[in-house]
Design brief:
The complex is a heterodimer of chains A (about 260) and B (about 625). Chain A has about 260 residues and is mainly alpha-helical. Chain A is about 70% helix and about 0% strand. In chain B, helix 16 crosses helix 17. Classes of the chains: A mainly alpha (about 260), B alpha+beta (about 625).
Amino acid sequence: MMGQTSGAKAKERPAPARSAETSEFFQRFSLQFRVQHIFLFLSTITLIVTGIPLWCLGRPGYSWSQAVVNAFGGIEEIRYIHRAGAAVLILVSMYHLYYTMFTKEGRREFIELLPRQKDVIDVTINSLYFIGLIKHRPGFGRYTYYEKFDYWAVYWGCVIMIGTGLVLWFPDVAAKYVPWLTYELAAEVHADEAILAALALFIWHFYNVHFNPSRFPGTLMWWHGKISPEEMMHDHVLEYYKKELAQMKSKGQKAEPQDGAAV
Amino acid sequence: MRALRKGFGNRILFCCILLWAVSIAPAQEKLGDVTDGSRAVPVHLIPLLDERGEKITPNDEMLMPFSTRQTCGFCHDVNRVSGGRHFNAVDANVPAGRIGQPWILAEAGAATQIPLSYREWPGTYRPGQVGLTAWKFVELFGRHLPGGGPGEMFEESDNPDEVMRAYVSGKLETNCLTCHNAYPGQDQAEYAAQIGRQNFRWAAAAACGFASMTGSAGKMPSTFDPYMPASMDDPKLVPPMISYSKSVFDDKNKVLFDVPRYIPKQRCYYCHTNVDVGEVKSEKWSSDEDVHIAAGLSCVDCHRNSLDHNITRGYEGEPAGPNVPAGAFTCKGCHLGDATAKLPSAGRLTAPVPKHAGIPPTHFDKLTCTACHSGPWPGDIAIGVKTSRAHGLGTHDSNKSLTMLPHLYYPVFAKDENGKIAPNRIFWPAYWGSLSGDAVVPLDMDTVRAATARVIGKDALSKSGDWPSLTEEQIAKILTSLSDKVPAQSKAIYIAGGRMYSLDQGGKVASAEHTAAKPVMWPIAHNVRPAAQSLGVRKCEDCHSTGSPFFFGKVLVDSPVQGKGGVFRKMRDMYEFGGPVYVRVNWFFKLLIIAVMTLLILHILGDLYRRALLWLAKRFR
């Protein structure tokens, strides 16, 4: 199967046990998590689609932006939609902060997403694996290093985009309370970070979750939150075995080491 | 005897009291100075009087030019008028007020363009400092003077030759007709031409439209008597003579003057015209006048004055006059009114009342109205501009070259005296002077001409009136020849292009910064653009974006020195905008984007590569 680790050892790996939770799939993401993600990407895409023509409007070489603005109904309308998207993003961010601080599930997820020393090792091993110096991929836990990168990149992006966006939205208040963050500086940072975020989203994130050959043309995990055991074994083998071990313990079974399990 | 002495003493006392009473009694106002309130203009069918107060008739044996001071002064207090803004620059007791366009003495052959003003404006010099007496000043700049001021100061000269020349030329009296003659034949270009011939006494009459002039006072000897002109031996020397059109005199030898209440705008335009000279000169047919003119207002609707002729300039903070309340004729005064007034005052003269919707109020604290509404829409580079007074526009022999000196540029955004950012015109002074300590004093122009003529040949001068190209060698030669003309304990210097040039101990030219080399700027208010063309009307990024002319526009540092031309300063430097932080931030993000995306893309490629290898291994096992 595509995505499995290479070599004879992989062939010998026993077929993954079916999850006791459902007949076939693991429930990877809860409803709360998925709803937050949906609002996040809806608002982000709205912001990108409306923000780019707003930035390009009036600049030489971007005459197409006027047509896009007109399609939205004019500059006031497109600004309104952009600010509506911003408001949703702010609410999602604030809710996520609440979720990660005051819910048990959120705190657990947050702890899992914290960078660790293992992530640095995983980056190294994976890089060596890519260039063929190592035969096996590293085994990942609940979140791979690149998923953690995605999470913290959004954290960084939201802080910057919301902060600078509020300066642009309320320049008078900003001039009073943060005079060092001038309108021009905020506009510059807002635009630059938007470019970085858009590139990271459409190239990096979309490749990882939709366009890579093992998932193409896309995954609906963001919708139903379920992951197949095969995917679990490939991408989050440590979590898979952790879940199996927990199940066995709950059933009173003794855990046996699996050959071929990655380090 | 005692009684006689007592009676005599009483008479003396009475005379003293009488004299004192007369001295404190108010001067009797003249007929034309007290209005009954009628808005109709009195018909000015009046006799012409010469400078001695004698009536002029068409049959006089020796026709003299009429004197505006005498003719108009019969009914109007010309002395009081002569204290007005257009005439009172020479009065040291008059506050200088906000800086306006100075007079600019520009001579390409002397590599000079130096700002002059009788008012104590920063960055300007008094005409006397460059050797311009009042008479020489009038000879040079009288073409765009309305008379009076320095034109009536000739007797103060301590040069006997000049006193005699002043008698020949006559005074340049306050010329009421410059503004107050609506007759289409009023010819200010003729006025300028007569001044060029030193026909100061005749200039006003020659320009009025019903007189014609021949001859030139400038070519007459210093002994010439205009009242008893002797015939000249040389037929080419024609003494100044005036003749009047006989048809303008009625049967009582009175002349009808078309004196309007509202000064026609073309009277103002003669001295207050600007023409943009970018790559091409803006044409009158293609460029628009000020939006106020287009709306039907005239200059004097806003720039008003009472008899004292202290015309309102209309800027915020202008001191109030006795008859004109401050602020009434500023942008705010007409458009927004006085919020503290008991009665509504906004919308004066049908001025639209702006809402300024969506504009953060901080703009109104940091910017003048003119910053967004006046002058041309700022471009990437401040454009060149020619003005009437600086370039002699409207005169018969004006140089129409686009590169003629002085070189003025606009709009340049800079802070005014109130700390608000306003659009300005700018020029970089260039002149020869002496440096003593840290003080720079310009040198007399005759001295400068003598020194520069030896070094800057006529071949180096172009017909366009542009700079000659000065090499450092030439500067060194001129400075060397000037070094014994400067006062003791000082050294000869040349100011140009924002730098001060001097000779170091080795005799080589060294340049340094100096406050005297700073550009001279004065705020502009016209032409006002329509509201739909104001800065920020499209979006905030009209100004608030990298690359916007407001912050990142370029101002050419004009210099005749070879190799120093083509240097620009950023607009934000002109109002000391706080540092290019955002430019560094932009660079940081650019590098961040490149670095992060490179790593991410490499990761993707690595993953694809590994998958491809696995697939191939399976495929061809």
